[in-house]
Design brief:
The chain is of the alpha+beta class. The protein has one helix spanning 2-21, and strands at residues 24-31, 42-50, 53-60, 66-71, 77-85, 88-95, 102-106, 110-114, 116-117. Residues 1-21 form the signal peptide.
């Protein structure tokens, strides 16, 4: 009986360690793409992946920080919308893949590109 309890406890610790190992954090920093003032707008996008959950924080220079949440599919792709205030929103798309992770916010300008692992 004692061996079963010890084995069960070890299994739980191993599963918790595996789940923790799945968490990764990425960043993209750059300028917007599009017409008008888009190329002058600077943005930072932080993306945290925990299992299939994708959470992002983004902040355009001089504006409030915003967020998004999505779920990645089996291919590592995700898609959602992010509220940006004043009733506006941006489409958020991306992929979390070894060596090819990326994010794109598309609304009044386009922001994003390849993600760098933190």
């Amino acid at each position: 009986m004692r061996n079963v309890v010890v084995t069960g406890a070890i299994s739980i610790l191993l599963m918790a360690g595996a789940a923790q190992a799945q968490q990764a954090t990425y960043v993209w920093t750059g300028a917007g793409v599009g017409s008008g003032k888009c190329p002058t707008y600077k943005m930072e996008i932080d993306v945290t992946v925990d299992g299939n959950a994708v959470k992002g924080l983004f902040q355009q220079e001089g504006r409030p920080q915003r967020h998004f949440e999505a779920t990645k599919d089996g291919a590592g792709l995700f898609k959602t919308k992010a509220e940006v205030g004043g009733g506006g929103s941006m489409d958020v798309t991306g992929a979390i893949k070894d060596g090819a992770s990326q994010v794109m916010l598309d609304g009044y300008c386009k922001f994003g590109g390849p993600l760098t692992k933190k």
